[in-house]
Design a protein that fits this description.
A hairpin with a 2-residue loop joins strand 9 and strand 10. 36% of the residues lie in helices and 27% in strands. Helix 5 crosses helix 6 and helix 6 packs antiparallel against helix 7. It contains seven helices and ten strands. It is elongated and about 60 Å long. The protein folds into two domains: 116 residues, Immunoglobulin-like (Sandwich), CATH 2.60.40; 67 residues, no CATH class. The longest helix has 32 residues. Strands 4-1-8-7 form a four-stranded mixed sheet. Strands 3-2-5-6 form a four-stranded antiparallel sheet, with no helix packed on it. It is an alpha+beta fold.
Amino acid sequence: MMNKLIKRLPTILIGLSLFLLQFSCTLFNSDEALVKYTDRYINNSNQEIELVFKSSVEGESNLIIPPSGFIDRIKITWNDDNTIQRFIDELYGTDSDALIIELIVENELIKSWNGPPISMGDNNNPFNYNSWAINENEKSVQFTINNSDIGWIPGGVMHDLMDTNTDLIRTGFRDNASGYTIRNIYDALDRGIESPQSFRDRLLSENGSRDETDVRELFEAYYWN
């Protein structure tokens, strides 16, 4: 009896090894299927923006995103049966009071969003499932801020058009524009103006292209090329 068992022992060991190999491969493949995706916030506007996250659980944090820039926030495990809806629910929670997100430009509150996450059609809102897109190549789920979300022209550029100071707007750009009045600015902000560039062009058109080079450089300083 013992001799028969000894003779069969190599076969038993080989079978056990194959079983363990198959089991470990299954575990490995399962782990490989669980990929970390990040929530990415893209600034597609011409202004530096700040997103402030006010959580009743985690406190307050903020992201400062330059024009045409983006920031990745946290990573959440993503698997084959995930959807954007499930991702956002896990990211923000489903309690309407759990999180508030504020959009700030030049220290001024532009918008404030709060949950719970739902589908809201074309309304660009981080709590709107429809406002997010999946980037498979970069393993991210993305929310984008556009100029239309900001929807205003900072008062600083209007002041710069009227004053005689030579202020530093940002590195490499100074405010050399001057000579415009409140009336000139008011007249240019009428029907059909839907962007800073169209405001600039109408302002120049209605005022004989006054100080055009400096005006165009001023708007470029604010990232409105």
